[in-house]
Amino acid sequence: MLRSRRWEWSNERRIQQTRQKIESQKMPLSDHLAALLEADQLPESWHWSYGLTAARRTSLTAPPQRKKSYRNSFLNPKSETACTLYVLGCVDRWVQAQHAAIAPRNEDGWDSRFFQKASQNNFGGRESWCFTSPFRSWIADSLGVTAEQTADAVLIFECEMRNSALCVGDAICPVSFLDTTQKSWCLQDAIVLLPKIQRLIVIESKLSSDMSRDTSEFPLVSQAIRGWESAFMLTRRQESHFYGWTFQSILLCPRKPFEYRGAYYSYVFSDPTDHVSRYRSILEREYPHRLNRERFDQHFEDFQQSVADAISVAYWDDLAHLISQEDSWITSYMARIRAACGSDGDAVYHAANDRFRLAGIEGWHIEEE
Fold it and tell me: pTM of this prediction?
């Protein structure tokens, strides 16, 4: 009798597992996004907590046929968006998503009131805004401050720096020494706000692509310069909520292309002072008719001096070590998403495998087939 009951229980369990597998095969990949991000308790509006639009959330599981959205998808092995969200979100343990009041974006767009409160360190219930995570400790180590000083960090993905929500009133803070008509001047992969110590950190991520050397209006103005000067301007101009803050810029990239000078960004970030000096020549010789002389005379010397201490480089593998202390965590993660993502399991598995390799995250016992 006991043996019969055990058999019935075992058989019922197999039937239940088979049913679950069949159901998972029917579910769209978007239903498995929490598994891809390794965040089991994500609320429905989690993306607003990190500054993402609903459209961007949808694009994270876009198939190859949707070419424009596919560049951001977890199905795309070269997706910098997927790599940035996964690594930074996991290292921060997705803590912001559990606090409904942390919402730099809502259904209407960026929330200027949020950025105003952040700039004034004026959130209610300060203790509830402070979190402990490896990401916040990493930021503290990078800046040479204590973990307690970075506990109130706000991580925001994909922030356009020429953004009215970052500005006081109806003003648009200029983010360049040039008078530009471009709607988008610099889209940062991530920014970090540190209200307590008044730091604005911008993060540019690179995976397999190199840094842009130009822009449609100004063929000689690099992506690096646009990122540095926009962060600088937001901390120096009174039109900005972050006037009086200090800025930092972090390049997050694979180790080997940087160390072996295999990418343009490796030269730029190895000697940012030289790059800014050349930018000065570009402004005065190539674009004098578009140079804003008032901003140039008032701020450029300060900009040039600030850059030397504001620029740093971090590698994907450094952050990967902070996700888990276990060497086999990538193997375990990929096995989980392969099992959880139904008919897309193999595709997301191989995409993740290739993406980790492009990021230079090696020696983690990634499964070979």
Answer: 0.89
